[in-house]
Each structure stands twice: as C-alpha cells, then as structure tokens.
Write a structure and sequence with these properties.
This protein is mainly α. Helices cover 66% and strands 2% of the residues. The protein has one domain. The protein has helices at residues 2-24, 27-42, 56-88, 90-95, 101-133, 150-174, 178-196, 239-261, 266-286, 297-302, 323-349, and strands spanning 136-139, 144-147. A hairpin with a 4-residue loop joins strand 1 and strand 2 (144-147).
Amino acid sequence: MKIKFARSARQVIAIAATTARESMQEPVAFLVYLSAVLITVLVPVFQFNRFSEEGRLARDSGLSTMLVFGLVLAAGVSGRAVAGEIESGTAAAIIGKPVSRVTFLLAKALGVFRVVCVFWLGIVSATLISERISARFVTTVNYSGYVTDHITLILSLLAVVLVLLAGAAVHYVRRRSFGIFVFNGIAVSQFSVALVSGFYSRLGKPFFVFGQAGCACGNPHHHEHMQRVLYDPELNLRIIPAALLVLFALAVFVTLAAALATRLQSGATLVVCAAVLFTGLAGDTFAFNETLLSWKALPAGVLPDIQHFWMCDALADGGRISAGYVAGAGLYALTCCTLFLTAGCLAFKNRDMG
C-alpha cells in the first residue's frame, strides 16, 4: 500500500511539474499574464477620481484584474492541459504507463494551480505597487498637495522590460524557454520592486539620506524623539488577505475547469466558468426571497458562492479581513475543489481515450 501511494505521489509530482512548464510556455498564458500586470500597474496613471478614498481604485482594480484574468488563465490552461491532451492522444499514452485517470486529473489540476500561483504572486505585487503609486496628499516643509509615486511606476515598468529582454537573451544564448523564464521573472521582478520601494519615500527621497520615514511635516527639528529609519515600505498590506481569498476562488475555478475539460473543449470550458463566476457573484441577489427548490434558488445553492471570496468592500476606510474569515473561506474552497475533482474523476472514468 505504501509503495503504491509513493509511486502515485511521484507520478502526480512529475505530471504536475510537466504541466506547469508546458502551460507557462503557452503564448496565450503569457499574454494574459503580461496584460494583467500592465493593466494593474497603469491604473493610477489614468485615475481621475479618488472615490472618497486614496488608492481605492487601484486596489479594487488590481483585485478585479486578478479574478477575471485569473479565471481566463485557469480555464484556458486547464482546457489545453486536459482536453488538448485527450484530443491529441497524449493522455491515452500517459494513462497506459500505467497512470490512473484519477492521478492524471489530479496532477493536471495541481500543475495548472502552480501556474495560477505564479500569476497570483505577480498580480498581488503589482496591486501593492499600484496602490502605492496612486496619488496621496502629502504635506512637507516645502510642499503640500497630491503626490504620485512616479519612481515606483518607472521601476515597475522597467522591471517588466528587463525581464522580457533577459528572457530573449537567455533563449537566444542558452536555448532555454522564453515563456518559463518570463512567466516566473515577471512575478519575481514585481515582488522585488515592491520590496525596494521601502527604501525611499513617496517624494523619491531615500531614507538612508533623510531618514525620517515617520515624519509627516518633513521638518525633523519639530520632533525630538523621531527615530531615524532606513526602511519603511508604504504598502497597504491589508490587500494580502483579500488577495488570498481571490486565490482560493481561482483554485475553485482550476478544479472546475479541469473537471469540465474531461468532456468539453477549452472555449466551452471558459464559457461555463464565466457563467459560474457571474452566478456566484450575483447568486444572493438573483435568488433573494425565492423558495429553496425554485429555478432561481437551486443554481445559486448548488454552485459555489463567489461572494465569499470577493471582499474588496471590507477594506474600505481602513477595514481589515480577519484571519478567521480567511481560514473559513479556505476550507470552503477546499470543499468545492474536492467536489469538482470528484465529479471530474467520475466524468473521466468512462471517457473514451481512443
């Protein structure tokens, strides 16, 4: 029993790693990822209204981009990884190794989720950067008014360009995969820019020279006990719990797409996932005051409630999302993933692989 479990675990790890590598090399996956990062970072550039809270538009836009583009990525990659290999006959060759159909589907879902996690890291970093870039009202000795962090904006865009150039150079010199290098490199670069932004103020003054990160008026002589600091990341870390909830939602869509891909093509899988997203977000309103078995309440009760994972409004006006809520939403997402994978395995069990 232990030997069989260990063999199955090795098969899952190997197939999942291969799926992740192949998925990152897909041009569509790369374009979706790059578009999502650029849209997120550039939102503050075209922001003309603060909506009663500084940085809220950038924050909400980043989380929305994470959910919508993540759904497209999850559904598209799952369709290619499962339906595409069934259609081409690759799945039949793998299952004949022998690899069970349950192992194959689980490994494919884990491989796609690994790609989604890299996507998530890049977008959550870009969202933190975008929220910091947004105009803030700053008062110093020599200036009073709204300030946009242009330095962080330039660093973020420059990091993307450098990753693309480095990926092209590595591919040309060493013949390594451009897609894999860039897919991982964008996430690392945006995360690095978010960390580096803590070494200078929103006005572009490095803390190791001026050092007064906590001084709002900009005049250190008015604060006898002001501590000199070298690092102060002005990042809204309250975004991270909300982004984790979106990641849980994307995990649900990964397993749903993998299950659907056992019977449907990529396009149909994406359409069904989009319909589930719409129903999950509008389910409570759609089924309001309806009876339990009505044609409106039944779909809303059977399909996952995406509103549990969409908590942007909870961050408004300094609000926070508790760790207990995140843990509960994680358990709900795990339950949905288990149900969808079980349904997918049952649908895949009698699928003709010829």
